[in-house]
Amino acid sequence: MGEQRAPVQEQRVTRRQSAQTPLHAPGSRLDFALFYSEHLGMLTRFVMRLGASPYEAAEAAHAAFVEAFPKWSQITTPRAWLRTVAARAYLRQTQLRDRPTDTIPDQPGGECPLAALVLKDEEQHVCAALSALPPRQRQVMAWHLDGFSHSEISDELGITVEAVRQNYARARVSLKRALGLTAGDQL
């Protein structure tokens, strides 16, 4: 008969536990999986702030993670790197959108991953206001809303810090006007 093996038990690892084990070495598969599960929603929202629909944003975010996986151990600033790649993926989608294509029939399958990404009414209103901004202002504001500093945005977009400040200030004025906020209201 052959040797019988004990069944392998699936082991659920929390972030705290995984940080203490060698499996969680930077650049490891577990490190990537944890980063993916923690940041996919934020990356999708970032792309939506650039003007994408939820489906376009999800597609661009997934494309960025697919591109990141084989290079994961070499990526030093994953949040910024993924946003740059996702933004480019979204721009490629918008260029392809204008080309006529055959419709793809709906495929039966599991739940849509976007069901977990439900925007509140306020967020939808802000996304609509963001989509009305000029492209550079929208880009700067999307990076800012994701917590990046002016200097980090400057580095990632390849523009001066002063250009980031100007675009940010103009975007704030436009957004306050679009959202019906007064000068003293916080954005």
UniProtKB/TrEMBL annotation:
The keyword Transcription regulation applies. Residues 129-174 form the RNA polymerase sigma factor 70 region 4 type domain. Residues 1-24 are annotated as: Disordered. InterPro entries: RNA_pol_sigma-70-like, RNA_pol_sigma-70_dom, RNA_pol_sigma70_r2, RNA_pol_sigma70_r4_t2, RNA_pol_sigma_r2, RNA_pol_sigma_r3/r4-like, WH-like_DNA-bd_sf. Residues 35-93 form the RNA polymerase sigma-70 region domain. One of its GO terms (biological process) is DNA-templated transcription initiation. Keywords: DNA-binding, Sigma factor, Transcription, Transcription regulation. It holds the Pfam family Sigma70_r2. GO terms for molecular function: DNA binding; sigma factor activity. SUPFAM superfamilies: Sigma2 domain of RNA polymerase sigma factors, Sigma3 and sigma4 domains of RNA polymerase sigma factors. Belongs to the sigma-70 factor family. ECF subfamily. NCBIfam families: sigma70-ECF. PANTHER family: RNA POLYMERASE ECF-TYPE SIGMA FACTO, RNA POLYMERASE SIGMA FACTOR HI_1459-RELATED. This is RNA polymerase, sigma-24 subunit, ECF subfamily.
